[in-house]
Design brief:
single chain, 182 residues, alpha+beta, Pnp Oxidase, Chain A
Amino acid sequence: MGKTYERLDESLRRFIGEQQMFFVATAPLSGDGLVNVSPKGLDSFRILDDHTVAYLDLTGSGIETLAHVRENGRIVILFCAFDGRPMILRLYGRGTAHEEGTPEFDELRPLFPPLEGARAILRVELHRIADSCGWGVPLYECNRQRDTLLRYYQQKGEDTVRSMRLEGNAQSLDGLPGLTVG
């Protein structure tokens, strides 16, 4: 049976810290818009306080999450135990996107390791924290984090990655505005 929580208590913080990946889900306001779910890894998630979290958004082939959050703020972050005790944790909230080059990004950036390709930080004010059993989720063993994306950014260089970001991340698949700074 699922349970809701008033805040991110110590047991939830520990659970989050043990997970090797998380997922973010967003959708535009348009009823025929595309729902987006994105897996995230690396050391890119931080708990700011009992009701606020943030994650470092790395340059990718799309900009759906940031565009949807900019349009309506709605976001769900899902953590799922693939080893240990079964549990699924959903963090529902209102997100704010802070692009590289803004004061808010610069303020939050030191909380994260110097990962190549950072384009934004999404900060989420939580309004619902809920778990569910996760009994049907298979067991997986994490061998290691992939470094392919980071090596790609290093190989391309900062200027090339910025150019790619401006070209490929200007708007979402639904035509919503993407990155605006730069």
